[in-house]
Design a protein that fits this description.
single chain; 24-stranded antiparallel beta barrel; two-stranded parallel sheet; alpha+beta
């Protein structure tokens, strides 16, 4: 028996040696010594190795002929002895990055509109979550995934765990769209945590000019005499050539049973790094860097299901009615599709500055309960006004409101132009209101408790309290004109009902009480059943009512019902926000910003035009009540109603009723060719045709897109817009003072159109090019355009083109370069002031060019 076992052992050893010796050599992964073992000369072996090292890897055996010393005879001799396999010197994460490179690229480009959310989604793409043990909240936070699809997955998981995508796809009530959205972000077993360190670095440079709205505010004079030298911020600080936007962002994280993460971002907005003398530059630059930087330390304790964050963090709950701390306003933010929120607490390295939270936050999350607490202490910018009537602004004056200034001017710069203006105005007036950096300190504390008794159903309670070291004191409706405008120049009659949106702001000091805080509280809910989801949020601002009684304080509510099927989805949303509900951290569904239509929109009336940034940079929603209906329906394989919605709402400040409809139909005779027809109608003031705020808009777009090979595409788009407005004598008569012709004409019709060509070409998996050329003619209509995930608003007439190059220089390094040229005509309002004789001046032509560079390094 022993001899037989010994014989078998020797035989297997010999067979292994023989078969191993006959195994072909993989040239792409061979070293120089292995290559020299082939029946070739030493020089030929070195030539092959040098080619692999310095030129390229072999795609096939016949690429050996690219080596000069390898002739056909040598190739035939070594062909049976070698093989060609793809070269790989990177791990699973780099390979996964290759597979989902197009999604990562879109997330990187989408950072501006989605804030720090793209960081979270990018991490999940590289290190996906295990679908067999994750929670409802984690799956719902994935991009464009609906609650009904998440419920379908978890209900099926109760029956049996998932082994692969095919198994997941056959979950009852899970739509095809939902499954395809999920598949890149999930895995089906516990992840490999042996290589768990990830480093992400991003650099951005952007020298694009100011928007037309911002330039209009900065050019506006503080004094009645517009010819006074340095009477506006544009001339005083020479903003014609602003310093570029610059961003550095670094994130380091580990993936293990205890996840650790640290991150830091430093950014300078356009025009913030202005020319100063050396000493001023050092002091001001360091202060700016301190203000414009964010850091965090994140500790995710997986066994305890607890997340702890120190530093800057993002907080979002429910429908964004109580807490969603971002500086950016989003129209029609339904919480579904591409406008969904990432709920809970997460690290924040976004460009949000005014409403950034800095302190400590913790969250506990499992399938039954979600609980979180947060505390923040930070300086905030604000608008102060001369509440003491002492003809000067100082630290004893009260606050009007928060303000988001872009770029931020230092307090010394703001005070300098105010003193200059006061001296120029003499006895005729003075600056009564102004923005200030770090005007007050806010200590904010809050929490959220959410209970989920059933899969897809929960009820949550949220509350926060903000404590201030300075009073918010809002002028009365009667005193407001004297605060905001120079009544010597502007008749107080110019103030309208819409200015109630200013006079109804929250005061911490009134005739009835004096406090140093603001409190907001409420609850949210969600329930899903099969393909139906019902969710919403209710909130109140504590003022003079009782905490235990609902409805006796300014309140707000958002409620929506969502139906989701394979070829049809339907959304019904109702919202109602009291005009007194002044929650600066609310970002719910809305059509317009809070101060829409108010005096703040007319910076040429303002005593201080910079205060108009309360409207132009507003992240707050206006007080409104309305019904919103949205649907998507696939009639046939070739015909799809991609999106259609109808919104009817009433603005609470003046009761104006508006209606907006938009629908987009996609027709594909063959898959590669898409013809899209989009129509929009909007009526402002639908119930009152005797006010000047009435307007009707019609916008028609036709887009032809050809999907080419390798994900290339070429598209042509034409848009035509018409707007009817009530008659304005200033629009239908010469712009000369006291011309005497004040007879209004018929309704004013303005119109405009544009034509655009877009092209995308992928050279290979690592490099591509995007570009557009666009011509537009405004005739009074303002056009908009999406360009490489950035939105651009254009007025008057002109043309522009841009081109973006994207290239992955290595497995871990990617760069994108965008070059843009814009030729356009200026608006006349830059050349003259209303009712002042200046003669006629033609519109001035401008040419702007800009570049945007983004560098991403990941390993």
């Amino acid at each position: 028996m022993k001899k037989i076992l010994l014989f078998l052992f020797v035989f297997l050893l010999f067979a292994t040696f023989v078969f191993a010796s006959k195994e072909k050599l993989d040239l792409n992964n061979a070293n120089i010594w292995q290559i020299k073992m082939l029946p070739i000369t030493e020089q030929q072996a070195e030539d092959i190795f040098d080619y692999l090292t310095y030129i390229d890897f072999f795609d096939s055996i016949y690429d050996l002929r690219n080596v000069k010393s390898i002739d056909q005879k040598t190739l035939l001799k070594i062909k049976p002895l070698v093989s060609i396999h793809p070269y790989s010197d990177y791990g699973k994460m780099a390979q996964r990055r290759d597979q989902i490179n197009y999604l990562l690229r879109n997330l990187a480009a989408n950072e501006g509109s989605q804030e720090s959310v793209s960081d979270l989604w990018e991490d999940l793409l590289l290190t996906p979550i295990n679908v067999n043990n994750t929670t409802f909240r984690d799956l719902q936070n994935l991009p464009t995934v609906s609650p009904t699809d998440v419920r379908a997955v978890l209900e099926q998981r109760k029956i049996d765990s998932f082994s692969d995508y095919r198994n997941l796809r056959h979950s009852p009530d899970l739509t095809h769209y939902g499954a395809t959205r999920l598949k890149h972000y999930i895995i089906y077993q516990e992840p490999d945590l042996t290589k768990n360190l990830f480093v992400n670095y991003r650099f951005e440079f952007n020298n694009s000019p100011f928007s037309e709205e911002a330039e209009e505010v900065f050019r506006q004079s503080f004094t009645p005499d517009a010819t006074t030298e340095f009477s506006n911020m544009w001339d005083r600080l020479d903003l014609s050539n602003p310093a570029p936007e610059i961003l550095h962002k670094l994130r380091i994280r580990t993936e293990d049973w205890v996840n650790l993460g640290v991150g830091s971002v430093v950014f300078l907005d356009k025009g913030e790094n202005r020319d100063l003398n050396f000493f001023e530059f050092q002091c001001d630059f360091l202060k700016t860097i301190k203000r414009n930087s964010k850091t965090y330390f994140n500790m995710d304790l997986k066994p305890l299901k607890t997340n702890l964050i120190f530093g800057n963090y993002r907080v979002t709950y429910g429908q964004g009615l109580i807490m969603d701390n971002t500086d950016f306003f989003g129209r029609r933010n339904t919480g579904f599709g591409f406008s969904k929120r990432v709920l809970g607490i997460s690290p924040d390295l976004s460009k949000t500055q005014e409403f950034a939270l800095k302190g400590v936050a913790t969250e506990f999350n499992n399938s039954f309960i979600n609980a979180s607490l947060f505390y923040s202490q930070d300086k905030k910018d604000g608008v102060i006004w001369d509440s003491n009537n002492d003809n000067r602004l100082n630290n004893e004056d009260d606050l009007l409101y928060y303000i988001i200034s872009k770029p931020e001017f230092s307090n010394s710069e703001l005070i300098g132009i105010e003193d200059y203006t006061n001296s120029a105005m003499g006895d005729s007036g003075y600056v009564k209101i102004a923005p200030r950096k770090d005007a007050f300190e806010e200590k904010l504390r809050g929490g959220h408790l959410e209970i989920s008794p059933l899969i897809g159903s929960h009820i949550g309670f949220t509350a926060y309290e903000a404590i201030y070291d300075r009073h918010f004191n809002i002028p009365s409706r009667e005193d407001l004109p004297n605060c905001l405008v120079d009544t010597n120049e502007v008749n107080p009659v110019k103030f309208k009902l819409t200015d109630n949106s200013i006079s109804t702001l929250y005061s911490t000091i009134t005739d009835d009480y004096e406090r140093d805080y603001r409190r907001v509280y409420g609850f949210d809910w969600q329930t899903t059943y099969n393909n139906f989801c019902f969710q919403g949020e209710y909130a109140e601002l504590e003022k003079d009512g009782k905490f235990t009684k609902l409805g006796d304080d300014p309140k707000a509510i958002v409620a929506s019902a969502y139906f989701n099927f394979a070829n049809l989805n339907f959304l019904f949303l109702y919202r109602n926000y009291d005009i007194g509900f002044d929650n600066p951290y609310a970002r719910p569904f809305a059509e317009h910003e809070r101060f829409d239509g108010s005096i703040l929109e007319k910076q040429y009336y303002m005593n201080n035009p910079l205060v108009s940034e309360m409207y132009y940079n507003s992240p707050w929603s206006q007080a409104e009540e309305g019904i919103y209906v949205e649907t998507r329906y696939k009639f046939l394989r070739q015909l799809t109603l991609t999106k259609a919605y109808l919104d009817m709402w009433k603005r609470k400040s003046d009761g104006r009723v508006s209606v907006r409809f938009q629908g987009e139909l996609d027709y594909r005779l063959i898959y590669q060719i898409s013809l899209r027809l989009k129509q929009k109608w909007q009526i402002n003031g639908a119930d009152d045709w005797f006010t000047r705020s009435v307007s009707k808009t019609s916008e028609t777009s036709i887009k032809l897109r050809n999907y080419l090979t390798n994900r290339d595409n070429l598209s042509f788009e034409y848009r035509f817009t018409k707007v009817w407005m009530c008659p304005y004598t200033s629009l239908t008569n010469p712009a000369n003072p006291n011309h005497g012709n004040l007879i209004p004409t018929a309704n004013v019709l303005i119109h405009g159109d544009f034509i655009a060509v877009n092209y995308t070409h992928n050279f290979n998996d690592y490099s591509r090019i995007d570009g557009e050329i666009l011509f537009w003619n405004g005739h009074g209509v303002s056009h908009w355009d999406w360009e490489d995930m950035e939105i651009d608003f254009m007025g008057s007439e002109g043309m522009k083109y841009w081109i973006t190059f994207y290239n992955r220089l290595s497995n871990n390094l990617a760069i994108s370069f965008k070059y843009k040229v814009k030729n356009y005509k200026d608006e006349e309002l830059y050349l003259r002031k209303y009712n002042q004789p200046t003669g006629y001046a033609a519109q001035i032509k401008h040419k702007d060019s800009s570049i945007r560079i983004q560098l991403d390094w990941n390993f």
